[in-house]
């Protein structure tokens, strides 16, 4: 698996041009860093316009129950909402001119009446309850990862300039907490948040489940073993999606909790892949903050969001377009009369 290399010469050329633009040196702050980053990713100054932005929502259920403020049936119901274009990310992606594709990777339903393309990458129904059993069976983590590679290829071959991973899964924040704690050697207390909005009793139950899961799993070094023990098919597929974007040299805007955990695992599988990812926004969940810190990624936006779906990342798309526009359209100090 060969990760593409961002173009250092294009980055240097972008920095030189930014310094020569008609403004005080450095006065466009983070926009300048993003402009240089995007130039390196596209190997061009200015970078290409971000005309084709694609969100892929990975949907799946979990064996752990009672860890969320909402019942697991919401996951399947939300698949229909995405298909109807009525989800939060559908609306916000629409504003950013981005397309949304939802995929049932591991929803616990038969999905008989949704279009076949929605279930084309299905791995299983739900996953094991991580406090008492492995999330996945032998071979499923790798199979799901390979689905993620294929999904990224489909989007990139279809013309994507920028990819956004989204997630939908009641219980997602519990498994993300377990995976992030295991990878970074953290305590349940550090990483367990309130997810969809659980109360103190709910959080106490969630802490106990994450603690039991971490004890059951023990020290896991191999990322696929970690996905099998504590992860999910969606997490493995999202990791594959992130790795393949880096292999193909296509930039990614990460979203919230699920993106953070998947990105940490993906970096274990493919070190260097993180050079192709930006953090779109900061979630309120603590595991995401730890994941982003470990990945050395600074979120573009901080709006107090905790919806998931890719909803935070798509709102950073106009910021990236702004970063490109300054390089493309601003005048030069040298031309001042
Ligand atoms: O990404 C986030 O910031 C985020 C924070 C809390 C919840 N979510 C979404 O809510 C679901 C998981 O929450 P929970 O409480 O069921 O673990 C899942 O569908 C996520 O997309 C997402
Ligand atoms: C309604 C609803 C929508 C969501 N989108 C992502 N996670 C979600 C959780 C719930 C409960």
TrEMBL record:
Its EC number is 2.4.2.21. Coiled coil: none annotated. It catalyses: 5,6-dimethylbenzimidazole + nicotinate beta-D-ribonucleotide = alpha-ribazole 5'-phosphate + nicotinate + H(+). It comes from the Bacteria. Pfam families: DBI_PRT. The keyword Glycosyltransferase applies. Pathway: Nucleoside biosynthesis; alpha-ribazole biosynthesis; alpha-ribazole from 5,6-dimethylbenzimidazole: step 1/2. GO terms for molecular function: nicotinate-nucleotide-dimethylbenzimidazole phosphoribosyltransferase activity. Gene3D superfamilies: 1.10.1610.10, 3.40.50.10210. Keywords: Cobalamin biosynthesis, Glycosyltransferase, Transferase. GO terms for biological process: cobalamin biosynthetic process. Catalyzes the synthesis of alpha-ribazole-5'-phosphate from nicotinate mononucleotide (NAMN) and 5,6-dimethylbenzimidazole (DMB). Belongs to the CobT family. NCBIfam families: cobT_DBIPRT, PRK00105.1. This is Nicotinate-nucleotide--dimethylbenzimidazole phosphoribosyltransferase.
């Amino acid at each position: 698996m060969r990760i593409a290399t961002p173009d250092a010469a294009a980055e240097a050329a972008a920095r030189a041009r930014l310094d020569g633009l008609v403004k005080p040196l450095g006065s466009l702050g983070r926009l300048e860093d993003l402009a240089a980053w995007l130039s390196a990713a596209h190997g061009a100054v200015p970078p290409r316009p971000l005309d084709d932005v694609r969100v892929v929502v990975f949907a799946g259920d979990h064996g752990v129950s009672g860890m969320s403020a909402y019942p697991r049936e919401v996951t399947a119901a939300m698949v229909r909402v995405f298909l109807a274009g009525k989800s939060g990310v559908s609306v916000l992606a629409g504003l950013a001119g981005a397309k949304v594709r939802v995929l049932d990777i591991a929803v616990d339903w038969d999905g008989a009446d949704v279009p076949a393309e929605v279930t084309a990458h299905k791995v299983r129904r739900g996953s094991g309850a991580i406090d008492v059993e492995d999330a996945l069976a032998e071979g499923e983590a790798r199979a799901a990862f390979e689905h993620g590679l294929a999904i990224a290829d489909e989007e990139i071959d279809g013309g994507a300039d920028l990819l956004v991973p989204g997630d939908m899964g009641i219980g997602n924040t519990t498994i993300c907490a377990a995976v992030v704690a295991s990878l970074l050697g953290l305590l349940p207390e550090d990483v367990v948040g309130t997810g969809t909005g659980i109360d103190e009793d709910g959080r106490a139950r969630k802490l106990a489940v994450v603690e039991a899961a971490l004890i059951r799993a023990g020290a896991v070094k191999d990322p696929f073993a970690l996905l099998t023990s504590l992860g999910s098919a969606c997490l493995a597929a999202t990791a594959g999606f992130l790795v393949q974007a880096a292999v193909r040299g296509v930039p990614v805007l990460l979203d919230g909790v699920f993106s953070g955990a998947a990105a940490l695992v993906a970096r274990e599988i493919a070190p260097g892949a993180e050079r192709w990812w930006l953090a779109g926004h900061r979630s309120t969940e603590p595991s995401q903050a730890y994941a982003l810190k470990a990945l050395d990624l600074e979120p573009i936006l901080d709006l107090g969001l905790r919806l998931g779906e890719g909803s935070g990342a798509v709102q950073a798309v106009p910021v990236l377009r702004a970063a490109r526009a300054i390089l493309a359209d601003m005048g030069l100090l040298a031309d001042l009369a």
